[in-house]
Design goal:
CATH class of the largest domain: Alpha Beta
Largest sheet: 5 strands, parallel
Distance between the termini: 72 Å
CATH architecture of the largest domain: 3-Layer(aba) Sandwich
Shape: elongated
Oligomer: single chain
Helix content: 40-55%
Number of helices: 20
Strand order of the largest sheet: 5-6-9-4-10
Number of strands: 14
CATH superfamily of the largest domain: P-loop containing nucleotide triphosphate hydrolases
CATH topology of the largest domain: Rossmann fold
């Protein structure tokens, strides 16, 4: 039979080939196995090749389909190409002709897929250039060496990885290192910020949607799970997703299958999930805020990243890395931070962790004299909230409304205290030692927010923190009844 002959030819050429008896079986195989190319006869019982192309397009609008046709039906084959077929080949044909056609189709599909991945990664900071693997993880402390060992140990597995730690410790960096060292490193690595999107947008971003699934869905769109097939998908801040999305994530992790929004067709995928969270997920699960079954599915291979204040030996190598990288990026002469400045920074508590350190390094490079070859203590000292170490464990304190505040929760940095101290209203009065750093931080943020009449973008810019970080902090404080719900 023609089907067996073509299958044997392509198998001998080194392709992994699956053959099916009819078009309906082919559609099920396409949805579940995600082939690189489909080869079909034009004339078949039950469904023609043209009709099959139309059905394939409802599953994957970019999957190349090659039609085999007799000489007398070339006109029909050309019409089919206008309706979505990639190529056709006339019978009788030599084996080499089929092999060449299949290779060309696979190459075409690879280009389309690469472009889709690049578009998906646009604006996320994910780039194929730069450090690779463990070189991404900068530091010399015992704690960071342990993190490297954990990354090396879990990378070769296909199991789900959960990376936890305070905001700004570098969870995304560790996640990317896991992918780099994994057997999937030549395939796609995609990321989605679960905290930045509302439920409907996140659902579409993860699973894709069909044309007409909702207002504005003018064409079919593949989601991140589909684009990351055979690769890795980072779910950044997975603790922020809604219960409905949690249920869908659980199914993907269990069954490796999902449906696009607005579709009933089940699509199979092979994706390694790497998730991050800055929240205490076991506590959230026990309180019913996060599904326990999903937590257990995510927490297969855990990696915990300690805060920078617990590994201050890493400050110097991180400073050297960031300053060198920023200076090279801006095309300015080499510059270093002198020993006095490094010593000061190595005694600071870094509530904003590595992200705060990176921001200060960038500010120092940009604002320093371009003729200078070093950055001194006098430049960086005003940007630090205080030049003494932060206690490793801060005591629980009773808030004014009787609610107990978890003072050990992650806090963000004020990277522009000089600007904040210039505010004349509202003025905050307290003596050193009267309040915890968390209380000072909360009051400063609330005061700045009030100064800008609740405008979060202006507030975040004035404080030198991200809008997302500001939003997460306000959300947590509202949940704990530490600030007004109207903020």
């Amino acid at each position: 039979m023609m089907r067996d002959s073509v299958g044997s030819t392509l198998t001998r050429a080194g392709f992994a080939v699956r053959t099916v008896v009819d078009a309906r079986s082919a559609l099920k195989e396409i949805a579940s196995k995600r082939p690189d190319v489909v080869v079909t006869d034009l004339n078949m019982p039950g469904m023609t090749g043209v009709e099959l192309v139309a059905e394939v397009r409802t599953i994957d609008d970019e999957l190349p389909v090659i039609l085999m046709t007799a000489f007398g039906t070339i006109e029909t084959a050309v019409k089919a190409m206008k309706n979505g077929a990639y190529d056709y080949i006339t019978k009788p044909f030599e084996g080499d002709e089929m092999i060449i056609a299949v290779k060309r189709a696979i190459g075409h599909a690879a280009v389309l897929r690469e472009n889709a991945i690049l578009r998906a990664n646009a604006g996320t900071g994910q780039s194929p250039s730069g450090p690779f693997g463990l070189d991404r993880i900068i530091g010399k402390s015992v704690a960071i060496r342990k993190v490297r060992e954990q990354v090396r140990a879990v990378a070769s597995s296909h199991g789900t990885v959960l990376v936890t730690g305070e905001s700004g410790v570098g969870k995304e960096v560790v996640a990317h290192a896991v992918h780099d060292l994994s057997p999937r490193h030549e395939s796609a690595y995609l990321a989605v910020n679960c905290a930045a999107l509302n439920e409907s947008l996140l659902e579409s971003e993860l699973f894709g949607h069909e044309r007409g699934a909702f207002t504005g869905a003018d064409k079919m769109r593949k989601g991140r799970f589909e684009l990351a097939d055979q690769g890795s998908l980072l779910l950044d801040e997975v603790s922020e997703v809604s219960p409905q999305i949690q249920a869908k994530l659980l199914r993907v992790l269990q069954e490796r299958a999902f449906e696009r929004v607005g579709s009933s067709t089940t699509i199979g995928v092979d994706v390694r999930v790497i998730a991050t969270s800055n929240r205490d997920l076991p506590k959230s699960a026990s309180m019913g805020e996060f599904r326990q079954d999903l937590f257990y599915r995510l927490n297969v291979l855990p990696i915990v990243i300690p805060p920078l204040r617990d590994r201050l030996e890493d400050v110097q190598p991180l400073v050297e890395h960031f300053i060198g990288k920023i200076a090279a990026r801006d095309g300015r002469r080499a510059i270093r931070m002198n020993d006095e400045a490094i010593e000061l920074m190595a005694t600071y508590g870094w509530p904003g962790n590595v992200r705060e350190l990176q921001n200060i390094c960038e500010r120092a490079v940009v604002l320093s004299d371009h003729k200078a070859n070093e950055i001194g203590r006098a430049m960086v000292e005003p940007w630090l909230m205080e030049s003494r170490p932060m206690p490793k464990a801060m005591p629980l304190r009773a808030a004014g409304n009787g609610v107990v505040q978890d003072a050990s929760a992650p806090v963000a940095a004020f990277s522009q205290p000089a600007q904040m101290s210039s505010f004349t209203e509202p003025k905050l009065n307290y003596r050193p030692g009267d309040k915890t750093l968390s209380e000072i931080e909360r009051e400063e943020i609330v005061a700045t927010l009030q100064r800008f009449n609740g405008h979060r973008q202006k507030t975040a810019k004035a404080l030198g923190i991200g809008v997302r970080t500001l939003g997460l902090k306000l959300k947590k404080w509202k949940e704990d009844s530490l600030v007004s719900p109207n903020l």
